[in-house]
Amino acid sequence: MNTRQRVSAFFVMSLASASCFLYAGKATAADDQYAQAAHVYDTYCVQCHGINRDGKGLNTKDMSVQPRDHSDPKGMADIPDDELHKAIKEGGLSVNKSVLMPAWGNVLTDEEIKEMVVYLRHVCQCGPK
Amino acid sequence: MKLHIFAALSFGLIAAPSVALASNGADILKSQCMSCHATVKPEKAGLDHIWERKGPDLYYAGSKYNKSWLVKWLQDPIRIRPAGEFYRKHVKPGDKEDVVDESTLTPHVKLSKTDAEAVAEALMALTGPVGLVNKGAFKNEKVSMTMGAMFFNKLRGCGACHMAKPGTGGLSGPELYTGGERLQADYIYSYIKDPQKFDPHIWMPTLNLAEPDLQRLTGYILQLSASEGK
Question: E strands within chain A?
């Protein structure tokens, strides 16, 4: 291998690794936008709202009011962002809904609840109001 | 004089075996239990702790359990959390709703009577941080079971996550029909008041309950064991 070959081999390699970084960067950025909120949802909300975010959680068998189906674009589009935020922070009663939706204001920060509302819009595929 | 010597002697006789028992129990905790249970307060109890731990924290066991329950349960561990610990790792979508994935749950280790007594002794010595439990908070006033059940299920929504009788109620939290036998009254009161004080990221939220609610719900749970869940 002469110097020129070596240089060009190095060039190709660094190009490959650079694009690799670029790609990885892009993938995480796209996931990152919702990853944290999805993780919070998995920890706290899945017990009632379900693994598939469809309101069919582990706890629902005997619940007298069924949890909201977060994957339902029609039902979710009817609820404005500030009501979503309030329901999560202060619980169902605060928006004239069931007490079975608890208040998460002592567990989640305002910032986390904001991200959750954005995430819920992503889940229902229905734009913010 | 003679009496003093006698008292000191018999004290020694009683105290010595129980000290030995506790240290034997501490050894068992170290060798058989610490891989799944925290016996000292975790330094960083972030959200990761909830996802990574394999069993409930035991570093405040002495402020939480009734000793007689511990001795009994360690010899014959019957499941408390229907979906194990942590629930999210043991559920799967079912026909109608999510269900417990039984294949991911394993039976708990069983101890002999002697070992159970030794471990219970050692666990009762782990009282946790000062002030974790509000000592004397529960006033032990008589609670009507009908009122208690109404608050537990309808008015405060506890039944969404807990069973007050076998087979009925939520599955993501520990069953509470053996709660009275298992737990100390002041622990129940303190936990309901502020679960995040015990576990900053636990999936039971603080429900902002007023004092009469805390007394009523604690009294109700304490009686559940006696009345086999009404």
Answer: none
